[in-house]
Amino acid sequence: MKIAVSRDDALAVARATTPVRRRRLSLTTQRMLEGYFFVSPWIVGFLVFLAWPLFQSFFLSFHELQATSLTDLKWKGIDNYKEAFFIDARFVPKLLATLKNNLLDVPVIMIFSLFSAILANQRIKGVIGFRAVFFLPLVIGSAQVIKQLFAQGVGGATLSQGINVQELVYQYIGADAAAGVSDLLNRLLFVLWKTGVQMLIFLAGLNSVSPVLYEAARVDGATDWDRFWKVTLPLLSPVILVNLVYTIVDSFTDTFNQVLEYIQQTAFAGGFRLGYAASLGWVYFAVVFLILFVVIRITNQYVFYAGDRSG
Amino acid sequence: MAVLVRRPQTVDFSVAKVLRFLRKQTPAPSYLFLIPMAVFSMLPIVYVISTAFKPLEELLLFPPPFLVRRPTLDNFQDLLLATNALAVPFTRYLFNSIFVVLTTVMLQVLMCSMCAYPLSKARVLPGRNFIFGMIVAALMFAPQVTRIPQYLVVQKIGLIDTYGALILPALAWSYGLFMMKQFMDNAVPNELIEAARVDGAQEWTIFWNIVMPNVAPAWNTLLIFGFIQLWNDSFSPLVFTRSEAMKTVSVAMISLTNGPASIARQGAQAAAAFLMTAPTITVFLLRQAKVIETMAHSGIKS
Predict the structure, then answer these.
(1) A19 touches chain B (CB under 8 A)
(2) Could A163 and B43 be called an inter-chain contact, meaning their C-beta atoms sit closer than 8 Å?
(3) pLDDT band at A41; cut points 50, 70, 90
(4) Residue B285: pLDDT over 60
């Protein structure tokens, strides 16, 4: 039934052209069915390859399963979870290290990406080119090759040597300062690699702040500094929340992540301990969800929703 | 954003002039930050390229020097030699990669767009909010963890060691759907669709001829993101396939470089790294303007 639109037309067409049996479907029902027809391929894929596996992994986390068939399951209750916390000497330290690293990195990423977005939002020559370059690390950053380079011991140190700063600092200021600078550069390098998406989200947010407000502030005698704190930041705060959530999820599901690597090893390399790996996965998710929940709860108090922004 | 205006259309001329003057006067401090940041961003790419041309003695130096001193093509020769020693001709890996990546990416984008269309534009669709909630939740799960039972599902359906195992699980892409929906919300006016419906257009025609052209930047972006992700993915082919003839280039690169002779193959490894990134960088550079345009408009509804 392909019927077009205004209700009267449609009914007329329907009366004229369709067999009697079909007329029973009301127009609304038809629309709905058509909608579901469009939605269904994705939903089927989602249910089969994502939702069902998720549910199953939760189920598996309470079982022991060595072979890769679901027939020889052994009920273990919460033993897997106990093992993760009290017996496995590697999991908890890895979890804590990941937490610490990410919680240190997230604020740096946020501030840095906001900073670069503001820079890249100016109307100066070549700014489009700069935006492209900032986005470039993202393109190869996730690549296997980069991971291999790091595995070979080619760390940020090697890369930041490319600009020779440490040597200069070493020669002119001293060894301690050089170590500090190289540390800073390495961290900065990683952060820069990760800020591509956040920067673009911030750019979109900055574009939606009305210039009228800036002019009003200027007329009232506000300095650039004032305008940043009193106009840009409050209006940007919903975007900051979106970005914060994205950054947290992104850094906790990163390919360099030790915990996820360990889970993968447990599942596939270390004798297919699927049940235990599933429970590790769920512990990890519980932690990530908890962090997200707290962050959203706290941040939401400071988010400024301008009256009719949604209108 | 009913009240707020995008461009200063009504701004007093003199204020606009002053602003323009200020902007012209003060680009220097911005460049002071922008240029170092750009240099930083380009370091890894420069390193990968320069390493591919290093002779063996430079590759074995520790710490590795950043730039090549005596560039050579030996590494590419080594890589050719190493690929000749593989069990399956290298072209087979290449065919697998190209076939799997292109098929997946196209189906992925089509399915995400199809699903996003009614979620964004249907007038009646019970369960819409529930579906969208599920998608947002699904965004948070790391693929590494769902892959454990995913393996079991793939095995149960009997897909192990087929192209299906490489293509089907990747199709329902949460991020793709999320992004397509945001874009359809923003970039396609409801009036346009209503008008088409009144004119008697079928839903598929509306979707294909009206909605899709309007969100072209969005699906172009997804094509590129998908390409990058799938091209670099070595996990699914490693786990979901068994025979060597079903593996992809990314897996072949790993086995090339992780073998017993891996130290002697440092050169081949560097050349392989270069060749692996080359296609993604090419794809990106070809469409970068579109991606950036798209990204700058996504994310937030205004």
Answers:
(1) no
(2) yes
(3) very high
(4) yes
User: How close is the nearest chain A Cα to the Cα of B254, in Å?
Assistant: 9
Q: Which of B20, B45, B72 is the last residue of a domain?
A: B72
- Write down the ipTM of this complex: 0.75
CATH H-level superfamily of A61-302: MetI-like (1.10.3720.10)
- Rounded to 5°, angle at Cα B222 from A40 and B111: 15
Tokens standing for B197?
Answer: 């419906």
Contacts of B45 in chain A (CB under 8 A): 136-137, 140
Residue in B with minimal Cα distance to A204: B296
| Closest among B236, B227, B221 to B298, alpha carbons compared | B221
**Predicted pLDDT at A79:** 80
* Listed residue (A238, A204, A239, A308) closest to B1, CA to CA: A308
Q: What is the CATH number of the domain that holds B101?
A: 1.10.3720.10
Are B114 and B222 spatial neighbours (Cβ–Cβ below 8 Å)?
no
Backbone angles phi, psi at B196, to 5 degrees: -65, -40
Query: Sign (positive/negative) of CA torsion B149, B249, B294, A44?
Result: negative
- Tell me what pLDDT residue A44 has: 92
Q: Do B149 and A60 touch (CB under 8 A)?
A: yes
B173-211 pLDDT tens trace? 887 887 788 778 777 888 888 899 888 888 899 999 988
Which residues 6+ apart lie within 8 Å of A27 measured at CB?
Answer: A3, A7, A10, A11, A14
Side-chain-side CA neighbours of residue A113 (13 Å): 28
Q: Which of residues 188-217 of A touch B (CB under 8 A)?
A: 188-189, 192-193, 197, 200-201, 203-205, 207-213, 215
* Cβ-defined contact of A123 to B23 (cutoff 8 Å): yes
- Is A119 near chain B, with CB under 8 Å? yes
The answer for A 135-164 residues in CB contact with B (under 8 A) is 135-137, 139-146, 148-149, 152-154, 157-163
Express each pLDDT in A241-271 by its tens digit.
777 877 887 788 776 678 888 887 777 676 6
Q: Which of B1, B140, B289 sits opposite A309 (nearest CB)?
A: B1
Q: Do B124 and A161 touch (CB under 8 A)?
A: no
On average, the pLDDT of chain B sits at 77
| Same domain membership, residue B122 and residue B256 | yes
The CB-side HSE value for A304 (13 A sphere, CA atoms) comes to 10
Q: What is the token pair recorded at A171?
A: 């020669």
